[in-house]
Amino acid sequence: xxxxxxxxxxxxxxxxxxxxxxxxxxxxxxxxxxxxxxxxxxxxxxxxxxxxxxxxxxxxxxxxxxxxxxxxxxxxxxxxxxxxxxxxxxxxxxxxxxxxxxxxxxxxxxxxxxxxxxxxxxxxxxxxxxxxxxxxxxxxxxxxxxxxxxxxxxxxxxxxxxxxxxxxxxxxxxxxxxxxxxxxxxxxxxxxxxxxxxxxxxxxxxxxxxxxxxxxxxxxxxxxxxxxxxxxxxxxxxxxxxxxxxxxxxxxxxxxxxxxxxxxxxxxxxxxxxxxxxxxxxxxxxxxxxxxxxxxxxxxxxxxxxxxxxxxxxxxxxxxxxxxxxxxxxxxxxxxxxxxxxxxxxxxxxxxxxxxxxxxxxxxxxxxxxxxxxx
Amino acid sequence: xxxxxxxxxxxxxxxxxxxxxxxxxxxxxxxxxxxxxxxxxxxxxxxxxxxxxxxxxxxxxxxxxxxxxxxxxxxxxxxxxxxxxxxxxxxxxxxxxxxxxxxxxxxxxxxxxxxxxxxxxxxxxxxxxxxxxxxxxxxxxxxxxxxxxxxxxxxxxxxxxxxxxxxxxxxxxxxxxxxxxxxxxxxxxxxxxxxxxxxxxxxxxxxxxxxxxxxxxxxxxxxxxxxxxxxxxxxxxxxxxxxxxxxxxxxxxxxxxxxxxxxxxxxxxxxxxxxxxxxxxxxxxxxxxxxxxxxxxxxxxxxxxxxxxxxxxxxxxxxxxxxxxxxxxxxxxxxxxxxxxxxxxxxxxxxxxxxxxxxxxxxxxxxxxxxxxxxxxxxxxxxxxxxxxxxxxxxxxxxxxxxxxxxxxxxxxxxxxxxxxxxxxxxxxxxxxxxxxxxxxxxxxxxxxxxxxxxxxxxxxxxxxxxxxxxxxxxxxxxxxxxxxxxxxxxxxxxx
Lengths: 375, 496
Description:
- The complex is a heterodimer.
- Chain A is of the alpha/beta class.
- Chain A has helices at residues 40-45, 99-105, 116-126, 140-149, 159-162, 187-195, 209-214, 233-242, 253-261, 363-374; strands at residues 6-10, 15-20, 27-34, 52-56, 60-61, 80-82, 85-86, 109-112, 129-135, 168-170, 177-182, 199-204, 219-222, 248-251, 266-282, 288-299, 315-318, 321-329, 335-340, 345-348.
- Chain B is 34% helix and 18% strand.
- In chain B, helix 1 (24-39) crosses helix 10.
- Classes of the chains: A alpha/beta, B alpha+beta.
């Protein structure tokens, strides 16, 4: 590696050197890692990464530059990219710009030449924690103070940061109307819905249920998003007013919010699920899908346990009638989805819309729209 | 689905002598299969003509036959041993060919032997180019288009299918004399007319050009419940036209965007389903144009291949072992992942390193053989290296080949070296490094090699500043795509 011009510092004092992008900038937040081997631009612009610094386990990041089509939102939300070897590649065949240039132009910090393997092993062992990236000139004591000033992820409402300030509408098809509680929706989700003819309205996540119902939607969609679902009591209240009135489907944070609405608690995973290779088993069919994942919290099972040992769809009673588990993660056997049996509704914890990641579960969007049509 | 209890005795075919294109990788996969199937309590009968393999050591099978790998002798073994099943997907192309012959001559039916792993239909479909192309078309996938013409008018008619640029090859001329690449309609007519004239049978072959496209392979596993995972993606550093066995390859793929890679992944899954490989591993090869994002399916091997040995070592996912378990009924989520011990084999390895494979040539031992690299494999072995970066793995593999005599390039002029790159040969990367070392521009080299990977990487590395690279570390960014003359066709098969 070239001379160290910056460093990654974690709140427990662990430090890794690298080549830093800036002489005076810095970024602090929760340091998490993703194992995806491609899709760096999608990850950086995914609002679910708001407040986080992404360490990429794959060493080469930037290989194919950046392009408008890989944007999952208007702007990057992750605060920094931590890489083993970042490269620009603005000359790659499909590139509209260079990766490192793109980060720098948007004021996103990046650090390259970091021993990301050691960093990730440390996080796997010690858990995701706060940290930051800093220029070499900044004394570590000051860096520590900056990290300590950052609120911890648990209990943090980050949806308020990424939610839109006003309603927007997407899709011009003649299909069903879908009202979205937008806690930070990815463009891929809107795209997949609109591609199937749906007319999608995105509502700020503080919108009351009455505002969504005033749209006369055929269904309500609960989006992905950043932060701790336990900090979003106000959204959970809104969800409770919507379940049973309209078919409800949720992804990722939306899954966690519906789980909380049903009375299931959520908890912080030690180092989260972030990557494009997580096997998830559909408990009804026994089929396994390779899924894209990005979440730091998860919902408990109906018995309150953090893992599901059974390989069948466990049923239980909720305020909204019977529910059953539909999916389980085969890596750590955490809950990956549920179905409501008495009123139309269901969720998945993973990302069927991909962006980035495999397309194995895109059919869930078809199923959602079929169920709306049948409801 | 648990282990099948309706079969007891399984016949496994080895791949015979070590030849170019079929070497120790099949001994490796055969040994793995024998081991796990015996662990599962099956009686194993093995046929292999090569006594220098590990698999023919007595402890790997219940009965080992050192017999010629021909349908006749294998049929005799079947008659004598009466196995319930034949697992032919671990013995390379030899194994598949024998299985196909034994099906065609009725031996398997006569002795009630079930083909497990890949069924006859799947083997036949992957083998037969026309059938394969039709099957791919039926699921909406594209294979390279080709046509035959005996007149300019006929060729003109085929042009709408084949498209421009088009590679025109006169039939039965030495070294393809009189052929060429047509980029415009006028050129096309001219080249076709000339080609028909010089061909002794007045015929030209028209191939869709995939010149300069990237070549990618995906290792796919499927179980009896139709769960499919991609074990590994592999990118050829050489562009289309050099046999993948002779190509420098890197895993995982480096240059495709996530969006494009996921489309390739979707297609690989569609291919294994369409060909109908019920259980086990397959290798699917693609040509991808990163500019137009067009994807062509080149071929698929419904068996463990040379690439699967590489993919296994590169990722730690034991393809042959798992393929053997899948063949006897297990599902991917019922098999433990050897590395973690606690998660199932139904996953896709994500790695934090880069693997590079270098072919090892030995042209000095084959005087008179043309060292030009093309669609027929000529390397005699390979070396693999793992590194944290592409550059590191590339250099390690380069040195691991243990060449008796490194190519001597110092005396040649820049011009001569550049010209030598027009024709891919065994020393093409040494030549590239020599030229770059002399200060020749990356673009000038890229124009000759067309490698989507090597030149850009070299560029990034060479100009990478020591200070914080706040601006672009890359060079001029010119996209060199002007195709050289010899890197033709390439759509035709490269078995691995």
